[in-house]
């Protein structure tokens, strides 16, 4: 390994980890290397090493979750990449900093206020840094919106309407796996919407003040299926070896996908984690239909909705300002996490950006082309993380632990609002 390579250890080798370790091995071998893998599941670590070796990277030493400290001591990483389930992010973020490492963490940074405070205290105590990988900030269309708003193209922003649709391929996937339990993920308002709330914070350069929310499980889950007349004979717990699942368009058949089979089906004997649970089974504690009203410190108001069973994938966002209106629609190609080609994740089918100046003619704004997944955001983010000399970023897209906290606070406040029926003052939850 070259002496100038930065050393990375990865904890959590599931679907999202592939994004990081394949980029390091394939595109950033001159600047970076993977020196250790840590997980609760040895089968998945073996798969990660097979992927690394297929791209010419040496296999990395593997460590059980209980051996995290030993991994850091023996492999001496400069940074630890955290891609475990959401509820354990704080454990590894805090411990990595205590052991002298900076941290790159997948979103959401964590899922509640106590865990957030643990991270803030560790940053203050150790002086180490936490980066949250908000790839949507880096997508060219989202960066273009930031550029237009900051140029004053529509004056002062007074209100935002933001509608996000997850379709019955991608959206359903959150209801098959560990995300379906709110104790693991904080629900979609924390796990998924953290992207969207971060974008609003980033676009408007502000932070949330008050949140009111409503949310329900209206489509997925056994009770909803029964209400729609799905017969009991069609109900099943998981898809594998289920005759009922053979006729279910929502079923995930891992045996038919080499990557899913190797990472999850063949790994079940170690941890009994079932990646292919029925989206119409019991045990789902997250919402699939969510609506928010958020006021920001700068006075702007956001109306937001997230639907996890839409017939198309993507979003519409509109900004009203004292000097006009900005409208964007982005249609994304859907995907199943770990289900195939990474470059297809969140790739763009179409996107339009329309500027409507007050008392002027509408103008369609040209959006720079993006290369790679998530509308081109992944490529730019990875270069920012692992590139030899990252360019100075005038948009300041790199997200810190403070950005990570501000994005999840909207979702945490929304969860509390749903539970209580009250408007939630964000500073009453956590004042940053």
Automatic annotation (TrEMBL):
Gene3D superfamilies: Dihydrodipicolinate Reductase, domain 2 (3.30.360.10), NAD(P)-binding Rossmann-like Domain (3.40.50.720)
Pfam families referenced in this protein's UniProt entry, alphabetically: GFO_IDH_MocA (PF01408), GFO_IDH_MocA_C (PF02894)
Gfo/Idh/MocA-like oxidoreductase N-terminal domain span: 7-134
SUPFAM superfamilies tied to this protein: Glyceraldehyde-3-phosphate dehydrogenase-like, C-terminal domain, NAD(P)-binding Rossmann-fold domains
Superkingdom, natural source: Eukaryota
Positions of the Gfo/Idh/MocA-like oxidoreductase C-terminal domain: 147-425
GO molecular function terms listed in the Swiss-Prot or TrEMBL record: nucleotide binding
InterPro entries: Gfo/Idh/MocA-like_OxRdtase_C (IPR004104), Gfo/Idh/MocA-like_OxRdtase_N (IPR000683), Gfo/Idh/MocA_Oxidoreductases (IPR051450), NAD(P)-bd_dom_sf (IPR036291)
UniProt protein name: Gfo/Idh/MocA-like oxidoreductase N-terminal domain-containing protein
């Amino acid at each position: 390994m070259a002496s100038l390579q930065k050393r990375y250890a990865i904890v959590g080798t599931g679907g999202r980890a592939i994004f990081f370790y394949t980029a390091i091995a394939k595109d950033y071998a001159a600047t970076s290397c993977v020196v250790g893998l840590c997980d609760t599941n040895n089968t998945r670590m073996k798969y990660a090493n097979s992927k690394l070796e297929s791209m010419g990277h040496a296999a990395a030493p593997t460590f059980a979750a209980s051996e995290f400290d030993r991994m850091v001591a023996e492999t001496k990483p400069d940074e630890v990449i955290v891609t475990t389930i959401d509820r354990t992010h704080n454990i590894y973020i805090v411990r990595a900093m205590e052991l002298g490492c900076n941290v790159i963490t997948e979103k959401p940074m964590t899922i509640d206020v106590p865990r957030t405070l643990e991270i803030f205290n560790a940053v203050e105590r150790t002086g180490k840094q936490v980066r949250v990988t908000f790839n949507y900030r880096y997508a060219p269309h989202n960066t273009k919106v930031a550029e237009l708003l900051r140029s004053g193209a529509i004056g002062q922003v007074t209100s935002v309407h933001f509608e996000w649709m997850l379709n019955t391929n991608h959206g359903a996937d959150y209801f098959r796996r560990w995300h379906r339990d709110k104790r693991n993920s904080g629900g979609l308002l924390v796990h998924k919407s953290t992207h969207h709330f971060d974008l609003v914070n980033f676009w408007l350069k502000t932070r949330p003040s008050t949140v009111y929310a409503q949310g329900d499980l209206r489509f997925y889950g056994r009770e909803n299926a029964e209400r729609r007349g799905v017969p009991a004979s069609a109900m099943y717990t998981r898809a594998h070896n289920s005759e009922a699942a053979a006729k279910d368009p929502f079923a995930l058949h891992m045996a038919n996908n080499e990557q899913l089979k190797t990472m999850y089906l063949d790994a079940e004997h170690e941890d009994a984690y079932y990646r292919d649970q029925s989206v119409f089974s019991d045990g789902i504690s997250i919402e699939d239909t969510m609506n928010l009203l958020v006021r920001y410190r700068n006075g702007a108001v956001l109306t937001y909705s997230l639907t996890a069973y839409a017939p198309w994938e993507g979003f519409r966002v509109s900004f009203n300002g004292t000097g006009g209106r900005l409208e964007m629609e982005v249609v994304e190609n859907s995907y199943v996490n770990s289900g195939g080609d990474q470059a297809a994740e969140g790739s763009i089918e179409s996107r339009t950006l329309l500027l409507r100046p007050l008392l002027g003619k509408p103008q369609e704004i040209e959006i720079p082309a993006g290369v790679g997944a998530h509308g081109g955001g992944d490529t730019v983010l990875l270069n920012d993380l692992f590139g030899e000399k990252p360019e100075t970023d005038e948009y300041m897209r790199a997200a810190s632990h403070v950005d990570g906290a501000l994005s999840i606070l909207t979702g945490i406040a929304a969860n509390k609002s749903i539970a209580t029926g009250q408007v939630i003052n964000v500073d009453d939850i956590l004042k940053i």
